[in-house]
């Protein structure tokens, strides 16, 4: 069964050998997971967006517990909000989403769960990769879109926007390659409104960090 | 959504009327992709479309993709100002051939 975008993006955010999340993916990784859940709902025809609004068009459950949780939350809202509001709202529950996604990837035989101690004291749970086939396929799909001039599928545009949001391209490409394909990444990602809202939300986080970080 | 099909100078024209969103996207997609079969030249006339959502934009993208893959061609004609703005914000104007009038779009493909 193909992976969902939240599963794919979490897999890409994971350091395969250590089983820990890439530091580079924080803090925008929470937003990328929230965006991935919304992206699946959009492609499943449950929600639709425009630059001013994100709205439910079909509240019927998708059968995916995580997507249905988000869909119910959006459907229950008393006021219509924009995509960025929902990205930020769902990102507040990113820990829950991540735990559920890790459990799925373990049950699919892609990751294994390892309980250990960090600095001999703090309990730590890691998820080393045991099957890298799925991750290699996702990476190949992304590179295929970036290194040709074809018109992308909506799912690929969404995924590329999520990788951009999670800061993952600097892990997937050399800096020279990244310089070369950055315009293509932006062109493909910006086709989707959710990706543009995600990028806006993340720019704001980094602006806040820069504002409050101690000057060194 | 009403979709009226016609033909001008060997170019098929799909005149759409209403909202292009999740509810109407399947019908619009079916009609436009059907018209593109066999490598045809197709113009989607948006003069009577007052709203295009993200799902609606994906229909236009799929049409452009199918046209390219199938040896046909696809253009968009006469978007209203709010629709044109959405096309520009999303960068669709760099991928799609967009014309101010139906005649210009047909002339561009004929």
From TrEMBL, chain A:
InterPro entries reported for this sequence: GPP34-like (IPR008628), GPP34-like_sf (IPR038261)
Superkingdom: Bacteria
Gene Ontology biological process terms in this record: Golgi organization; Golgi to plasma membrane protein transport; Golgi vesicle budding; retrograde vesicle-mediated transport, Golgi to endoplasmic reticulum
Chief place of localization: Golgi
GO CC annotation terms, alphabetical: cytosol; endomembrane system
Cell compartments where the protein resides: Golgi apparatus membrane
One protein family per Pfam: GPP34
Record bears the keyword Membrane: yes
Topology within the bilayer: Peripheral membrane protein
Molecular function terms, GO-annotated: phosphatidylinositol-4-phosphate binding
Keywords: Golgi apparatus, Lipid-binding, Membrane
Protein name: Golgi phosphoprotein 3 (GPP34)
Organism of provenance: Falsiroseomonas stagni DSM 19981
TrEMBL record, chain B:
A GO term, aspect molecular function: anti-sigma factor antagonist activity
Domain spans labelled STAS: 1-109
Source organism, top-level taxon: Bacteria
InterPro entries in the cross-refs: Anti-sigma_ant, STAS_dom, STAS_dom_sf
PANTHER family for this protein: ANTI-SIGMA FACTOR ANTAGONIST, ANTI-SIGMA FACTOR ANTAGONIST TM_1081-RELATED-RELATED
Family the entry assigns: Belongs to the anti-sigma-factor antagonist family.
Protein name: Anti-sigma factor antagonist
Organism: Falsiroseomonas stagni DSM 19981
């Amino acid at each position: 069964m193909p992976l969902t975008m939240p599963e794919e993006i979490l897999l890409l955010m994971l350091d395969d050998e250590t089983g820990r999340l890439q530091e580079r993916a924080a803090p925008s990784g929470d937003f990328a997971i929230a965006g991935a859940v919304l992206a699946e709902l959009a492609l499943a025809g449950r929600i639709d967006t425009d630059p001013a609004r994100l709205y439910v068009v079909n509240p019927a459950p998708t059968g995916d517990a995580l997507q249905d949780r988000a869909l119910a939350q959006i459907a229950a809202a008393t006021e219509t909000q924009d995509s960025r509001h929902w990205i930020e709202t769902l990102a507040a529950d990113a820990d829950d989403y991540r735990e559920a996604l890790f459990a799925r990837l373990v049950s699919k035989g892609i990751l294994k769960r390892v309980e250990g101690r960090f600095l001999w004291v703090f309990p730590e749970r890691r998820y080393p990769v045991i099957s890298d086939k799925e991750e290699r396929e996702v990476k190949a799909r992304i590179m295929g879109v970036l290194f040709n001039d074809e018109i992308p599928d909506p799912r690929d545009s969404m995924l590329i926007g999520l990788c951009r949001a999670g800061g993952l391209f600097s892990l997937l490409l050399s800096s020279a390659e990244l310089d070369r394909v950055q315009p293509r990444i932006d062109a493909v990602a910006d086709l989707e409104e959710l990706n543009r809202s995600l990028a806006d939300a993340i720019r704001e986080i980094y602006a806040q960090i820069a504002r409050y970080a101690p000057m060194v | 959504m009403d979709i009226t099909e016609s033909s001008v100078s060997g170019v098929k024209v799909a005149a759409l009327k209403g909202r292009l969103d999740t509810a109407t996207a399947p019908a619009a997609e079916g009609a436009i992709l059907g018209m593109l079969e066999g490598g045809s030249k197709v113009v989607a006339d948006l003069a009577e479309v007052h709203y295009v959502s993200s799902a609606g934009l994906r229909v236009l993208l799929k049409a452009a993709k199918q046209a390219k893959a199938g040896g046909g061609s696809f253009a968009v004609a006469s978007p209203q100002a709010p629709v044109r703005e959405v096309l520009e914000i999303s960068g669709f104007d760099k991928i799609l051939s967009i014309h101010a009038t139906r005649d210009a779009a047909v002339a561009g493909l004929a």
